[in-house]
Structure formats: structure tokens, C-alpha cells
Design goal:
Blueprint (H helix, E strand, L loop, with lengths): L1 H24 L11 H21 L4 H19 L20 E2 L4 E2 H26 L11 H25 L8 H20 L15 H17 L6 H21 L7 H18 L12 H28 L2 H5 L2
Antiparallel strand pairs: 1-2
């Protein structure tokens, strides 16, 4: 029994870490609402587990994880919440579609890029990278067997349906996207998922030389993610241009550096850590979805920030201990 729980422990950790980062570390919900994890975990955590297990079972890598995470984001925001198309989501007057609006598609390019990036990076990729760094010896192998994976899939689909129905019923106008919008979103999800497995397999160490130290890659991630989070939506197409530049910078840098011989698990963790810390500090200026930004909210933000730092420290220690001596010398 002990070996069984040890085997599935990383999956359980990912199950809860994903929604904790996606909603609580972000600052959308106060810690007093921690009970909502019972609903969020099967959806966020379930999605992260399914993506991670599929990628590791097929021997793919991070490019595939990122593309599947993007498909997940489209699934959530186009079908489950419909925020990509709803001009007044849940009657909250958030004005999500007001800036950089594209009438032909009925979407805000600003909001679309923003929310899909949140899911691709923070909801799925960051928690996967952190949990894998905590168990470096098992970072590239599946954590669940067929039955466990089936249970996660069923829970994910059930909660997805429940959240979809609740979003429609709770919306002041019972908003429903058009058939064209649903159809286009479905095509995008499928096309991106297929592309994720058509990417050529990359060879680690194919390029000579060492990447920057993990401290530098982490600092770059922290800076880029912080800029991403603070750029005002009111800048409209200017914000879209900044997002595009940040995406190009991070994708280009990570793609180039990860091909070099000296790239290791500490570099991957540093990228995730920088992104997580950007969420952590930004939560202190974030207006929560429910409740007020009062003292109790900020205490919760501080607790989560400290927990994030400690988790990253633990993951870093575990990953460093698993690195070859030569790799550590290149840090």
C-alpha cells in the first residue's frame, strides 16, 4: 500500500497544485475559499494530469505539453466558460471584449491571448514542471496506470459539464456562443492537439555550448511574465503587440537554450519558478473575483507566496541532487 501511494503521490500533488496556482496564487480567490478546490481540482488538476501522462507515455517533450495546454485553454474559455465570446461574462461587467476587438470573429484579441497564455503557462505547464522537479527520477515516466487515468478523465469530463451548465445558468443573459464560434473553437482544439504530436522530436544537446545559468533564465521568466501581467488592457492593439514580442522572446530563448548541452532540470524549473513568482507578487495588486482586497486577502497572498518559495526551494534541492556533477558545474 505504501508503494502504491508513493507511486501516485506526484499525480495527487499535481491534481491540487494546478488549481492552487491557477486561481489562488493568481489572487482570484482568498484562502478562505479553499473548499472550491474540490471543484477546481478535477478540472485544472485533471487537465494537467491528462496532458502530462499522455505526453510522457508517448515519449514527447515540452513543446507537446505547451501545445496541449493551449488546446486545454481554448476548451475551457470557448466551451466551459465562453469568456472568449461573452461580452458580459456572468454580468460582472469585466469588459473582456472591449479592447482590440475583432468583429469578424466576435473576440477580443487582447483577452484571447491573455487568458490562453494564463492557462498554457500557469494553469498547466508551471505546475507540471514544479511537481516533476520534486521527483526528478520519475520526471519522464508515467505516474498513473490505466485505471487511474480513466478515473481522472471521468472526473475531468463530469466537472467540465457541470461548470458549463452552471456558467450558462448563472449568466445574466444565459449567453450561448454561436455555432460558428463553437465550431471554429473545436477545429482549433483538434488542430492544435494534432500538431502537438506532429512536431519533430528534438534532440537534447544538439547544439554546442552552455545556456545561461538557471538564475538568469529564471530572472528572465520573472521579468517577462511580470510585464505580461501588468500591461494595461486599455492599450488595446499595443498590448497585443507587447504580448507577441514577449511570446517571441521567451519561445525563442527557451527553444535555443534547451538545445544546448548544458541545459538541465534546474533550467526548466527556473522558468516555471520565475512564472510562479510573477503570479505571487502580482496577487498583491490583483482584485479578487470574490470578496475584497482586504487585510485577510493580503495575508493569504503572503502565505501562498511563502509556500511557493519553499516549494521551489524544495524542488530545486531535489533537482540539483539528481543532476550529474558536470551539470552542476555548469549552473
Amino acid at each position: 500500500m505504501g508503494s502504491f501511494f508513493k507511486r501516485i503521490a506526484p499525480a495527487i500533488a499535481l491534481f491540487f497544485l494546478s488549481p492552487l496556482i491557477a486561481e489562488f496564487l493568481l489572487g482570484d480567490f482568498p484562502l478562505s475559499k479553499i473548499g472550491i478546490l474540490l471543484i477546481l481540482a478535477p478540472f485544472y488538476g485533471g487537465g494537467a494530469i491528462l496532458i502530462r501522462e499522455i505526453v510522457r507515455r508517448t515519449g514527447r517533450g515540452w513543446p507537446t505539453i505547451l501545445l496541449l495546454a493551449l488546446a486545454y485553454g481554448i476548451f475551457e474559455e470557448a466551451f466551459t466558460t465562453e469568456t472568449l465570446f461573452n461580452p458580459d461574462y456572468l454580468g460582472l461587467h469585466l469588459h473582456l471584449l472591449d479592447h482590440a476587438f475583432l468583429p469578424a470573429l466576435g473576440i477580443s484579441v487582447w483577452w484571447t491571448i491573455f487568458v490562453l497564455t494564463l492557462h498554457t503557462v500557469w494553469s498547466i505547464s508551471v505546475p507540471i514542471a514544479i511537481v516533476e522537479a520534486c521527483v526528478p527520477a520519475r520526471a519522464r515516466i508515467p505516474w498513473l496506470k490505466g485505471l487511474g487515468l480513466a478515473v481522472v478523465l471521468v472526473l475531468f469530463l463530469l466537472v467540465a459539464v457541470m461548470m458549463t451548465v452552471r456558467a450558462i445558468q448563472s449568466d445574466a443573459h444565459h449567453f450561448m456562443a454561436s455555432n460558428v464560434q463553437f465550431g471554429a473553437s473545436g477545429v482549433c482544439c483538434i488542430a492544435i492537439a494534432i500538431a502537438a504530436f506532429l512536431l519533430p522530436r528534438r534532440k537534447h544537446g544538439a547544439a554546442a555550448g552552455n545556456p545561461p545559468s538557471a538564475w538568469i533564465t529564471g530572472a528572465l521568466a520573472l521579468a517577462a511574465c511580470s510585464i505580461f501581467l501588468v500591461v494595461p488592457s486599455t492599450w488595446g492593439w499595443g498590448t497585443v503587440a507587447i504580448y507577441a514580442a514577449l511570446d517571441a522572446l521567451m519561445i525563442g530563448a527557451a527553444s535555443s537554450w534547451s538545445r544546448r548541452e548544458g541545459w538541465n532540470g534546474l533550467h526548466t524549473l527556473s522558468l516555471a519558478g520565475g512564472a510562479a513568482l510573477a503570479y505571487a507578487w502580482h496577487a498583491f495588486i490583483q482584485q479578487p473575483v470574490t470578496g475584497k482586497a482586504d487585510a485577510s486577502m493580503r495575508i493569504g497572498n503572503a502565505v501562498l507566496t511563502l509556500a511557493t518559495v519553499l516549494l521551489l526551494w524544495f524542488a530545486g534541492r531535489r533537482t540539483a541532487a539528481a543532476q550529474p556533477v558536470g551539470a552542476l558545474a555548469q549552473r
